[in-house]
C-alpha cells in the first residue's frame, strides 16, 4: 500500500519554446548538469545507468520514464542509502510555448526549512532550464 506524503508543492516555469523542443532537451539525462544543478554537477552513463555526482547527495542513479508523447518526464532518483525518490514532472502546452511542472513531495521527517530549500532549488533548476532553452545557449 502506498501512503500519501504530508504535502506536495507544484513548481512550474513557462518557457517560450514548443513542447517537443522542451521535452527533447529535458528528457535527455546527458543534459542534466546544464540545468538541474540540484541533482548533480556531472552525469555519466555507467553500466547502462545514468549516474549523477552531487556534492550534497553523493552518487545517485537517475531513471527517467520511457520517452512518450504525453510530456511525462517523471524520474526516480536512487540515493546512496538505497532510498528512491520519485519526481513527477510534466511538460505541458502553453499556447505556442510550454510549462514545465515539477511536483515536489515532502519526504517524511522533512522540516519546513528543508522543504523550503528543496522548493527553492527545484525552482532555480526550472528557471535555468527555461533560460537555457529560450536563449539558445544549449
How would you concisely characterize the structure shown here?
The chain is α+β, with helices and mostly antiparallel strands and 138 residues long. Helix content is 26%, strand content 36%.
CATH homologous superfamily annotation: START domain
Terminal Cα span: 42 Å
Mean pLDDT: 92
Order of adjacent strands in the largest pleated sheet: 2-3-4-5-6
CATH class: Alpha Beta
Number of strands: 8
Contiguous low-pLDDT stretches (5 residues minimum) are none
Order of helices and strands: EHHEEEEEEEH
How much of the polypeptide forms β-strand, as a percent range?
35-45%
Instruction: Provide a count of the helices.
Output: 3
Structure notes:
This protein is α+β, with helices and mostly antiparallel strands and 138 residues long. It has one domain: Alpha-D-Glucose-1,6-Bisphosphate, Chain A, domain 4, CATH 3.30.530. The protein is 26% helix and 36% strand. It has helices at 19-26, 32-35, 112-135, and strands at 8-15, 42-46, 49-54, 58-64, 75-78, 84-87, 89-94, 97-105. It has a five-stranded antiparallel beta sheet with strand order 2-3-4-5-6, with no helix packed on it. Strands 1-8-7 form a three-stranded antiparallel beta sheet, with helices on one face.
List the helices and strands and how they pair.
Layout: E1 8-15, H1 19-26, H2 32-35, E2 42-46, E3 49-54, E4 58-64, E5 75-78, E6 84-87, E7 89-94, E8 97-105, H3 112-135
Antiparallel strand pairs: 1-8, 2-3, 3-4, 4-5, 5-6, 7-8
Give structural attributes.
138 residues; 36% strand; Alpha-D-Glucose-1,6-Bisphosphate, Chain A, domain 4; alpha+beta; 3-stranded antiparallel β-sheet; globular
